[in-house]
Fold each of these.
Amino acid sequence: MRRFDVTSIMEPNNAMARRSVRIAQTGMTLSQLSMNVPFTDRVPYELLLRLQVTLRLSGGNAGDQLTHQIAESGVLFHCRLRDDLVVLKDVAEVLPYLNEPGGESGFTGAEIVGDAELMDAKRVASGYEHGAQNGFEPDGNLYVYNEVWTCTLALTLHRLFDNPRLKMAVFTPDNDDPLVVTPKQPREI
C-alpha cells in the first residue's frame, strides 16, 4: 500500500486483541491489632498481602485496535488503582487449612472478616514482549503488551482460640485478706 509516496507496513493480521489480568501474591505481613475486649476467643490481625497485577494484551493491531486497548486499559488501571479507593466488600472467609484442633498453642483456626482495601498501587513496568514494535520490519507474529503493577491488599484476620471458662479470680492485696471473685457472685472492690 502506498500513501503519500511512502511504503507502509501492514500489521501482522486482523486478529482481535485479547486482554487478561493475572494476580500473584509476592509477600505477606501479619501484625496483631489492639483488642477492645481483653477476654475473647478471637485475636485480630492486620494481614497485608503484597500483590503483583499483570495486564496482558495480545493480538493483531489492525485498525490500531491493540493500540487503543493499551491506552484505554492503562488509563483505566491508573484511575482505578491510583486515584480511587478500592474497597472489596464482605470478603469474609474461613481458612480451613489453618485449623489445628487440640493443638498445644490453643490456636484452633483463622478466618478473614469484613472488607478489604487495595492500596499503594504503583506501575513498575510496561512494554512489548520480544522486541515487538521496536523496528520497522514486517513481522507475522502477534503483538504482546504487558503492564505490571504492584499493590497491597489489606485484610483483617481473626485467629481463633479455645479459652477455658473463667471459674474464679483471686486478688491478694498487700495488707488484706485475699478477695475471691466468681462469675456468679461478683463483688465490688
Amino acid sequence: MKLLRLSLLTTIFNSPFQVYAINVAVRRIGDSAVIKDNKVTWIGEGGFEDGFSCPDSHVLNPSADKAFASCCLPGQTLKESSTTAFDCCAEGHDLAGSEATGYICCPTGHTYDGNVCSNGKPLVDNKCACTKDQNQNVTTEGCCEPEECSSGLKTGKCYTFLEKNGELLGYTRTGGYYNSAPDSRDRIFGKFQLCRDRTCNPGRPINPGDELYIKDLHGTPMDGADAGQWMNNAADGGHIGKTPDFARAGRFAITKWPCAKYCITGAEFGLGPVCPANQPALTFYTRSSEPCVPFELTEVPCTVRGITNNCIWRNGKDQCCDKIDCSERECHK
C-alpha cells in the first residue's frame, strides 16, 4: 500500500492509525519495522506493507522502546512513553511533569509544577546558586552538583596537632621525642608541614592511604636547633622523635575521623601511644596496622612573617577561619 505521510495537520490527526498524546501526535510502529530515509515500514495484516514517513521539514523520531514514532523538528528527540505523554524535546531536555500538572519539556533533572520548570535550587542570574552547607558546587554550566569528598589537606601546608588531653603535640629536647604537653623553654609545639616526598611539592591532595612524611618547622626553643627536620620512624616502644635523615623519616598516613578530627597512623604500620601517660608520646606498631591517634588539626602559617597571613581571618565578629583551610580568601595586600 502507499506510504502514509504523517504531519501535525488536523486532517492527519483524524487518521485511525494515530495515537493521541498530550503534546505531540505519534503513531504506533508495527512489528519488525524498518526505519530508513525518514520513513518507517513493516508488514501488516494480510501481508500488506504498511508504514509512514515525515515531511522534509521534520525528522522521524522513534520512541526509546521503538513502539511509537513522531515527526520532530531537527535537533529534537521524542521523549517519554504511552503511559505518560509524548513530546519532541530539544537536546538537554526531558519531559517533566505529572498527570495533575501536565507535561512539558524541561532541562534534564528539572521538575514541572504546572507553571514553570524548576530544579528546586535558588537561581541567581539564571544560574543555580548552591550554598556551601549544601555540600554542592556550581559547575561552569551553572548546575548544582554534589561536592567531591576530600580530606581537606594538601601538601606544603602547615598544621598544629591538638591531642584529646588539650595539649599540642611538640618536641621535647630533654627526652628527645614528641609528646602532647605544655610548652616550656625546653619544649615547643610542632608546626608540622605535610609532605608526599622529600621535596614537599606543594598543592598535592592528601588522601587516606597516601604515604605521608611530616616535617617539623619548629626548632628547639632558645637555640633553634633541629628546625625543619622529619618526624622519625621509631617503632615498637621507641619514642618517635626527629631526624635530618630522610631515609629514617617516619612513613605516615592520615584519614578523616568523626567529630572534625583526623586520625594519624602509619602508611604500613599502626600508630599509638608508647605507654599509658597523661602526656602521651608516639610509636609505630609493626604488628598491628589499624591503630591510629586522633588529633584536631588547625592550619597555621608556615612562616609567621608572610604577608598573606593578613588574609587568614574572616571579616566580621567571628574571625576564626576554618580550622583546616584558611587559604581561600581574597587578599588585599
Amino acid sequence: MAAVINVSAELREISAYLSKAGVPETDHHIILNKLTTDTDAHLRYLNQARQSNGQSTH
C-alpha cells in the first residue's frame, strides 16, 4: 500500500521549523513557495524540521 503524503502538513512542519530557526514569518511564504517546485529542497527542509523535533526522517 502506498503512503499518503499530506503536503500541507509537511509545509506546516517546515514553517514551524523556520520559526524556530529565527526566519521571519514574512519570509516563510517565499521559502515555502519555492519548496512546492523543488522536491529536493522540500525533502531537505522537511528532514531538518523533523530532526529538530527528534522525529525519524525515514
Amino acid sequence: MPLAVGSITALAPAAPGWTVTVTSPSSGDPTTCPVISWASIVVGHDDYGRERTELQPAFVCGREVFTHHELAEIIETVYSINAPAAP
C-alpha cells in the first residue's frame, strides 16, 4: 500500500547552523527557524504507485516542528533554506 503524500520515510540529523527563513505574505515579516533534521518526504507517486520523495529540512517554528510540506498545508509562505556561515 503506498504511503500518503507528506509522509516522512526517513530522518537524518542536521549539522549545526542550518536555518530556514519563513516569510508570511500577509505580514511580510521573516522568521528564521533552526533546522534540526533532514526528512525524506513523499511528494507523489509514479504510474506504478511507487512513492516519489524529496529531501526537506525539518525545522522548529513557533514551538512546533514542521517540514515545508506541512507548513504549506497550514499557511502560504515564502520559504528559503540558509546554509551555515562559512568559518
